[in-house]
Q: What sequence folds into this?
């Protein structure tokens, strides 16, 4: 029972944070200058975050049998550890998505800028 509850809570948190990343990416894709980079970057970052999250959920869930001597404490500890791991992963994913957008905008600006004259 505790395993099902843990997986439900952790899985719901992972799905919610992935959905937030997609919403952020859709908002970034509204800019016509970086729309293509935003769409691609959003899916790359979101799938990477999902893989990280599934791994974290699995690794922390594997510790549940060891912690199960005090069932409620084990569940709270596992959910807390997953929340921290997913929070760190979400922060890193959001920073990476923002960096991709900044790089795409800089590359677009550089390509649109007039060429600089060569120094003689």
A:
């Amino acid at each position: 029972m505790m395993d099902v509850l843990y997986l439900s809570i952790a899985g719901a948190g992972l799905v919610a944070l992935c959905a937030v990343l997609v919403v952020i990416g859709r908002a970034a894709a509204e800019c016509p200058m970086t729309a293509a980079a935003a769409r691609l970057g959003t899916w790359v970052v979101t799938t990477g975050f999902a893989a990280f999250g599934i791994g974290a959920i699995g690794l922390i869930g594997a510790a549940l049998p060891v912690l199960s001597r005090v069932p409620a404490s084990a569940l709270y500890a596992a959910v807390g550890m997953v929340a921290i791991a997913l929070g760190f992963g979400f922060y890193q994913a959001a920073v990476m998505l923002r960096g991709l957008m900044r790089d795409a905008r800089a590359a677009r600006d550089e390509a649109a800028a007039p060429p600089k004259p060569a120094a003689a």
Summary: The two ends are 77 Å apart (CA to CA). The CA atoms of residues 34 and 107 lie 10 Å apart. The chain has four helices and no strands.
